[in-house]
């Protein structure tokens, strides 16, 4: 079976499954739980433009879950059909950040198959954050200055309240070769951010604005 679920879509499925499990845990009435299940299934199916009958079969157990154990089995059954992030070698990563000298690449990024919508890591010593994103069908690297802030804030990418920092990068102005500085608040912890991202358009908008 070919993978067909993007990471952010899986996050939404997981959230909806949790709503169903919580409803059973709270011993809501049958009607309430049925309504939550129907709504959850609708949200899950609506995020796909098109599904084959086989893909529908894989997702449809969401309407029949009756306890947290079944919920877990259902989520586990989806793991093999999540589209992994494109694999990239250390040399490939360095190519994406040609201008950065002494780039430190975390080991898991170059060695593991990653399930995420984007790759992000921090180099606090240099006050930098690095993002790798698939943009218009190819991987791009965006390096920026990154400084943590004391208070919690809303992340521009996942739109959740979390420990954020100000990410700033330089974008080339259209014609005269000058640079403009742009930035916004994003999660310090990119893994956490990835696990809470359910709408990829926010990530795309952010990258388009920066790149
Ligand atoms: Zn975030």
TrEMBL record:
Limits of the Elongation factor G-binding protein C-terminal treble-clef zinc-finger domain: 99-197
Protein name: Elongation factor G-binding protein
InterPro entries: EF-G-binding_C, EF-G-binding_N, EF-G_N_sf
Pfam families on file: EF-G-binding_N, FBP_C
Domain Elongation factor G-binding protein N-terminal: from-to ranges: 4-86
Species in which this protein is naturally found: Priestia veravalensis
């Amino acid at each position: 079976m070919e993978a067909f679920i993007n990471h952010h879509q899986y996050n939404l499925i997981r959230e909806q499954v949790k709503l169903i499990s919580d409803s059973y845990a709270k011993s809501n009435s049958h009607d309430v739980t049925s309504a939550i299940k129907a709504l959850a299934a609708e949200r899950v199916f609506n995020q796909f433009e098109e599904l084959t009958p086989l893909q529908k079969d894989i997702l449809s157990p969401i309407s029949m879950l009756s306890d947290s154990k079944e919920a877990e089995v259902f989520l586990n059954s989806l793991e093999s059909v999540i589209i992994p992030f494109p694999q990239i070698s250390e040399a490939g990563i360095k190519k994406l950040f040609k201008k950065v000298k002494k780039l430190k690449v975390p080991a898991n990024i170059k060695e593991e198959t990653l399930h995420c919508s984007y790759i992000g890591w921090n180099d606090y010593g240099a006050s930098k954050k690095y993002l790798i994103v698939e943009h218009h069908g190819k991987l791009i690297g965006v390096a920026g200055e990154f400084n943590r802030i004391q208070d919690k804030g809303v992340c521009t990418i996942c739109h959740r309240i979390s420990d954020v920092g100000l990410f700033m990068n330089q974008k080339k102005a259209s014609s005269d070769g000058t640079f403009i500085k742009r930035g916004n608040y994003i999660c310090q912890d990119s893994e956490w951010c990835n696990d809470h991202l359910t709408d990829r358009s926010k990530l795309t908008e952010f990258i388009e604005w920066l790149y």
